[in-house]
Amino acid sequence: MRKSIATVSLSGSLPEKLTAVAAAGFDGVEIFENDLIAAPLGPGDIRDRAADLGLTIDLYQPFRDFESTSEKALAGSLRRAERKFEVMEQLGADLLLVCSSTSPDAPEDDDLTAAQLRLLAERAGAHGIRIAYEALAWGRRVNTYDHAWRIVEAADHPALGTCLDSFHILSRGSDPGGIEDIPGEKIFFLQLADAPLMAMDVLQWSRHYRCFPGQGGFDVAGLAARAVRAGYRGPLSLEVFNDVFRQADAGRTAVDAMRSLLSLEESAGIASPPAPVVPSGVAFAELAAADTEPLRALLGALGFARTGRHTGKPVELWEQGEARVLLNAAGADRREGPALAALGLETPDPAAAVRRAESLLAPVLPRRRAPRDAQLDAVAAPDGTELFFCRTGRPGHPDWRTDFTDDPGAPDGGGPGAAHGVTRIDHVALTQPWHHFDEASLFYRSVLGLRPDESMDLADPYGLFRSRAVANSGGTLRIALNVAPGPGGRETRPQHVALATGDIVATARRVRERGGALLPVPGNYYNDLDARYDFPPGDLDTLRELDILYDRDEYGEFYHCYTATVGRVFFELVQRTGGYRGYGAANATVRLAAQHTAELRAGTAR
Amino acid sequence: MRKSIATVSLSGSLPEKLTAVAAAGFDGVEIFENDLIAAPLGPGDIRDRAADLGLTIDLYQPFRDFESTSEKALAGSLRRAERKFEVMEQLGADLLLVCSSTSPDAPEDDDLTAAQLRLLAERAGAHGIRIAYEALAWGRRVNTYDHAWRIVEAADHPALGTCLDSFHILSRGSDPGGIEDIPGEKIFFLQLADAPLMAMDVLQWSRHYRCFPGQGGFDVAGLAARAVRAGYRGPLSLEVFNDVFRQADAGRTAVDAMRSLLSLEESAGIASPPAPVVPSGVAFAELAAADTEPLRALLGALGFARTGRHTGKPVELWEQGEARVLLNAAGADRREGPALAALGLETPDPAAAVRRAESLLAPVLPRRRAPRDAQLDAVAAPDGTELFFCRTGRPGHPDWRTDFTDDPGAPDGGGPGAAHGVTRIDHVALTQPWHHFDEASLFYRSVLGLRPDESMDLADPYGLFRSRAVANSGGTLRIALNVAPGPGGRETRPQHVALATGDIVATARRVRERGGALLPVPGNYYNDLDARYDFPPGDLDTLRELDILYDRDEYGEFYHCYTATVGRVFFELVQRTGGYRGYGAANATVRLAAQHTAELRAGTAR
Description:
The structure is a homodimer. Chain A is α/β, with parallel strands linked by helices.
């Protein structure tokens, strides 16, 4: 279907917004009146600019507080409407959004409202303009879509139809089922917005927290499907008021918006992009560092062995069980200090995964490989992390490991398959740019077919941060997305790789024996564990001795400990028992404070 | 009264918080359990640290979900409590906050709850510890202070009392009148927090948006006065969960917190600091710039005349009517480009104003003056602006203008008293640091006795910003405090000086004639004005010709226009008719977009 977006959804001046909208591939725009009023170009110039960019102007909005019990106010509104019709003629827009009145003098009488809207439609029709009447969730008398439709039906004028807005409908908990009873040709417009589920004043919720479909908690796709089943054939149009998007780069937000609509069309059964190819696990984590020696020492202490060197690049392969880490001594100038630069994702069909990613506007990265290298396709995640689609060790498929020569220099006691060692990568945690947290969760959900968990607020000593995990259904691929409290210097916080082990006590002990340092956990934490849980004798002493943290949920238990931080990277060892689903969020405050203490001490020691 | 603060109110590690609390002059702290658990020091070390800093530990908190219909859960809670009593003994804390249960298994039976709390108090008493039972606003069964008190009364144990929390009481709209019916000795603790009036889920409101008393919308002082009348003699203690304070400098937040309590004591009639000396107007605005030539040109075009030069510093005095601007060519290194560095405040009693400021912890600035200079006391506002207390032109009082020699070089047509020119400074607008917006409104309210307006959200092309004005009761001193959408580079946005005129059309025309540039306003704005208002013929053309913006409220009308921006400063010309009370907020979006357009054009032209 045609795709449109309201200019209020994006940051910048109106010309900047139009450029971003066109570049993202939209067919049209809704012109938000305040954007036009503040624009340095007149309506005719905007019309030309939009036409040059290949955009239609699908809607002019909003026209507020039209209907009234006061004859004088109504006359004023009609005069106001005539002026707006003139502007719309210059703009080349033929559909005006009229939202239900929020004024105390809004008529209680539906017949009066219908008569007034018929009068407005009559005037509009004389200009070739149509009116789409919408119920605001906080409208004074008319605040549900079915009420707005009853009035439109009663007014019975060809230039009058209704506008459906998913936020106004779903935020009130209205049943969208009735949409299918509205004749499709009388649904003049369909505005789509999602929002996180929040218990707050609906006006504030609407004005500050809307997000693109698929980023919040509403079934926006289901609502759109109903409108299509009713016969709606106009554009799918996004109208999102969001405090973060207002500050973000418009071009990038517009792409995020388009990805949202493409994904919605798939969910609603309107379009069929290439199906998602859900990754089954992490093939490798690639760490980039100009000086890889501290990471080598850390991996050695963790029991990893260097098993290969890349044939053409300064990249080493380290392995233990199914956990694989690449150390890349080139390209580390992208971030300060050692950083998590790329992930290999174990994918049943890499070529299909790339097709899926391309169809959802994920930036496909150019292949930089020597003629001998295995073919490896990659896309860039919203935080810049490169995601490679891999098939490891499957006969008949290219294997990225063939780019590495065997390295006989494995240290004693380490290496793949060692008893009680690391078995695989349990999850990775990536710090997201502040402006692109919602974009990231939609990216992983739509491009990779992962399922997002609920967002959580976690406290570190210097502010709350938000965390949201995405995972495949089996829990064999898990990525935790973290975002700092606000834009600024704190966005470059550490990322980490969590390594699974079947016996964390043995593994942690061996790390210590090999000279690896584990993050010291405060003794007060263990006193609190003792108060909260009744451990068997000795167990708590072991946790305390090895700085292992503990959590449980209704499904099982979680034990985890941390290494020191190198640059922007650290490792976590985790052991899950039963079906524990989380990531130890209950311990995040203690871990972050302990890392802060360690930083302070290191700072003093230097 | 003794003053205390919960460690959760501040940013940083527990030792950092204690240091900040002591430095701000608090007597004690509430230890928030998570701060202790995450601390690198054990309870005994924290006890010693607090004692060294002269702080008592007034409360350990919170102990959650104690009461239960399940015998097994109750036994677990009692075991948990015993562990916490041990921690408290090491801490030297003898009061534990127990908040009402949020669990589905909380007893419905008040007698059972009372019996369980009596049992807990008995156990606590054996350790010399007392229990303060508090109703959470979102408690499952017990969620009002009077309900909590009825249970405490029924339990009737000397080691059991109640804790009152102003947020929990006032957020639910409870009548605090009943506080005076509680025997003072059974009010074991009083926690104070304010919050902006918001319609949202009370748990989220409490956890993210609390602020210090005097910064929100609750009558916290009135509630505290009732507790004191009831006979409460414990500390006034702040417990504030605030996402911004979590990120702000702890030392500064602690001073803000103490200022809040000092102001609350005054409002509650508990203490009598020196009375506020409310300024009656702006004596001068001081602009600092390394190169003052562009500002000279702008002031000249606005009709100002240079009337004096400072006898000892590179400072010029420019005047028109009662509006006075100082141009300071020294000290401009504090900010980038020309900036508003200081305000002279017309004050009936400068010495008393300083005593007031000192009593409320405002940083009094050292006097840097030559022997001949007039005595002029100043304090630093939260954004660093220097506020000088002045009496201008009153016989028998030192006049700051005596530091300036007369300058005969006034340009033609300008100068004081010119017909239809600028008469006075209407208001100034100051951009606040993001972390200190609430601090600023409390500062102006408490230190200067100004009244804050409601906060408003305004849209600029790149994000919402918040604006809150403070003014004296006659409206002769008005300061608009603006804050950027988030921390980072956008905090250094322009500040401005608004100049009053009795005939903005004549004044704007003369500015143009003198070669001054006014900010171009988009033509679309005037088309919208035409749609909204029915102007007499010709009036709108005049506004359009002179780029004058228009607003009205129920009291009167407002006309205003803007100069170009120089560095971080621009001027506004304003004409108020009737009793218009605002600042033209309805036009802020258009003004900000126009300034952005002008910046782009200037950037292209350079």
